[in-house]
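Researcher: I'd like a structural prediction for the single chain below. Treat it as a standalone chain; there are no partners to consider.
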Amino acid sequence: MNLDAFHPTRRALIRALLLASGFAPAMLAALAKAGANSQVPIIPGVQELNGDVRINDVPAKVGQLVNPGDIVRTGADSDCVIIIGEHVYLIRERSEIEFFAEDFEQDENGAISGTIKILTGAMLSVFGRTRTDFVTPFATIGIRGTACYIDALPERTYVCVCYGQGELGGAEDGEPLETVQTKHHDSPRYIYPLGATTRIEAAVAMNHTDAELRILEALVNRIPPFDINGLMNDRY
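Model: Treating it as a single chain, here is the predicted structure.
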């Protein structure tokens, strides 16, 4: 992977992830071939952070757990990676995320489900087997065992279900808009506020990469299905 292609803060985050997770640079090729014997310990909480990252308005620390009801905020040129249960979140700069304050459930195996609010900013996420619902000012996104990238823009919400199924709806009126089933960033969408001429329209895949998805999945001992299924060429 050519890290020079990334924004400096994202480049630093990826380098830090590779080192902190115990992966040698050669792991990029190995991730696609990883199997049951390639397990690494799953460490909950903040994995890496760059810049100004706060949890409940207090500066965050690597290793800090993120609990239901916690609010994570990132400043300019700031990023962080968080593990909660079987789920991994890469939070971009200038974001405000409230984790699992509503409908929170945890089963006997520690699997977590519930609702996450993306008030502002963007987040790339990979999930275990439980259901997760996202709410932005304009959109709802229901996810089960998949991956997605969401950007809560001032005038609309961008969502890419990177692989798996997503149920897309309007946040203001609860109107179901579309169910997408994707294998490899097949159906990115813009979702607009109530009263807009168009509530949902096709978009293009942007601002997140297959390399990032591989790293996030590897942190919880998984491989993206596009690698398992032989779709290893990076889309963008």
